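Progress note, sequence design subtask.
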């Protein structure tokens, strides 16, 4: 049975990465907010650590995060954009473990924009217009000691002025923990169908990410996790993501990350992300800062969760 599932997954992956859907012009995908890091933990490590999720807040972008949900948790993620018009991004997440080895997850995104200045083909002002986007998802994953999997189904919508596009998308991932010191993982996210927008074909922000994490116990209370991932979205070059987390007694976590990517001038640019996490009994708090390389600024990620 496992061989049949693996063969089917490889066949589906080959089709997904063939042709125009996987080779989109730079910046050519729509609903890019679905590829935006939501969890402060992941953002603080520059997106690295796909094989080593630790927070329920990560389920919105990483289906393997369901393997880390050990108790029911409900929470809120918010992103504060530095100096940008899109200043209202909120994500609600929920994780529910059941039947010893499984987890159910749910998530809801909302992205609102300030008024956007409209111009015609001659550059003349035509008045302001509004835009917003949202997405809802459900997921199912496993919680095993070695091999884990996760799948997510997502419905998304984006409206700009009086035009709306819809998307039906899915995520799938698998990870393998070799021992207490090393884990491998990979995910395929946002694969699916997007309706035409303003009579133009649209492409989903499909992405593949694979990575390795080394887990180093320093003392009985201190541990260090170091991750190195490769990431590619359908409209970007491959990127290197590197992150580290230093944790004390599962109550205080310090995080740092950087990414290496090719920019428009064919040079390689990097950015440094950072953040922290604190657990107060039932309350989980995380903060992360992620740079925006194309702009002189960055995003502030804040998360508050309640375990019960």
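Output:
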């Amino acid at each position: 049975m496992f061989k049949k599932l693996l063969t089917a997954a490889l066949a589906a992956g080959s089709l997904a990465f063939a042709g125009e859907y996987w080779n989109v012009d730079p910046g050519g995908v729509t609903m890019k907010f679905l590829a935006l890091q939501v969890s402060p933990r992941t953002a603080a490590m520059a997106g690295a650590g796909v094989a080593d999720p630790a927070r329920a807040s990560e389920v919105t972008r990483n289906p393997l995060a369901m393997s880390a949900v050990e108790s029911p948790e409900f929470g809120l993620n918010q992103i504060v954009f530095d100096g940008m018009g899109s200043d209202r991004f909120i994500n609600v997440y929920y994780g529910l473990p059941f039947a010893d080895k499984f987890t159910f997850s749910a998530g809801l995104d909302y992205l609102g924009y300030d008024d956007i200045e409209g111009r015609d083909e001659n550059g003349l002002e035509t008045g302001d217009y509004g835009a917003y986007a949202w997405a809802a998802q459900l997921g199912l994953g496993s919680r095993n000691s070695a091999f884990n999997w996760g799948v997510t189904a997502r419905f998304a919508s984006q409206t700009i002025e009086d035009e709306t596009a819809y998307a039906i998308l899915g995520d799938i991932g698998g990870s393998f923990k070799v021992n207490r010191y090393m884990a491998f993982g990979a995910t395929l996210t946002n694969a699916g169908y997007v309706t035409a927008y303003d009579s133009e074909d649209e492409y989903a922000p499909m992405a593949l990410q694979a990575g390795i994490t080394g887990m180093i116990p320093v003392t009985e209370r201190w541990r260090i996790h170091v991750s190195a991932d490769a990431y590619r979205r359908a409209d970007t070059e491959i990127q290197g993501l590197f992150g580290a987390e230093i944790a004390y007694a599962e109550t205080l976590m310090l995080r740092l990350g950087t990414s290496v990517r090719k920019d428009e001038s064919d040079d390689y640019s990097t950015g440094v992300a950072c953040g922290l996490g604190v657990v107060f009994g039932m309350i989980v708090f995380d903060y992360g800062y992620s740079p925006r390389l194309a702009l002189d600024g960055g995003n502030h990620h804040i998360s508050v969760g309640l375990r019960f």
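The longest helix spans residues 2-16. Work on this subtask will continue into the next period as scheduled.
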